[in-house]
């Protein structure tokens, strides 16, 4: 059977990468009509750099590095208060990469597009976990049975909400 991942951002395609290498069939459903290009910068360092390296994607991420060299603090009026080297503030070392979230998502998507099946413009409408798998009905009306369903659809996960109900989020800062 196939494993269904809800969410084609960063986590979904990263999981698909490893599952397909284990011989698993993977389908990724994403509510957006196409791959999302937006998002803020992501710092990839430490274990994340190691994982990207093992995936064979670290060099692609380095090519998309933002090249940020300085952090500038400005007043409400736009006057520079301080300008500091990014390395001083962010502690960048060696394989650290600062990449835009959309670029990282594209790299992961491109690396898995030939192995996982992507379905854009659709979403999970309902889940029914039974003894023979998880029966899923999609917003499009399509249905499927899956061995496993993974919610990788973000902080406000609709998949998590369908399975667990409303779970309060605790803001950490």
From TrEMBL:
Superkingdom of the organism of origin: Bacteria
Family annotation (InterPro entries): FAD-bd, FAD/NAD-bd_sf, FAD_aromatic-hydroxylase
Sample GO molecular function, one term: FAD binding
Pfam families per UniProt: FAD_binding_3
Domain FAD-binding: 2-163
Name recorded for this polypeptide: FAD binding domain-containing protein
Species name: Paractinoplanes atraurantiacus
């Amino acid at each position: 059977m196939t494993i269904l991942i809800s969410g084609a951002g960063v986590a979904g395609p990263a999981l698909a990468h490893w599952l397909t290498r284990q011989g698993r069939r993977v389908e990724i459903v994403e509510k957006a009509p196409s791959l999302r290009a937006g998002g803020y910068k992501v710092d990839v360092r430490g274990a994340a750099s190691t994982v990207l390296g093992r995936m064979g994607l670290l060099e692609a991420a380095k090519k998309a590095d933002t090249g940020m060299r300085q952090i500038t603090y400005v007043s409400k009026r736009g006057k520079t208060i301080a300008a500091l080297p990014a390395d001083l503030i962010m502690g960048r070392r060696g394989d650290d990469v600062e990449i835009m979230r959309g670029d990282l998502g594209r790299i992961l998507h491109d690396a898995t597009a030939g192995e996982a099946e992507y379905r854009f413009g659709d979403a999970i409408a309902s889940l029914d976990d039974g003894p023979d798998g998880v029966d899923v009905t999609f917003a499009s009306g399509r249905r499927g049975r899956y061995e496993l369903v993974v919610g990788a659809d973000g902080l406000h996960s609709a998949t998590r909400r369908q399975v667990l109900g409303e779970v309060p989020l605790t803001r950490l800062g």
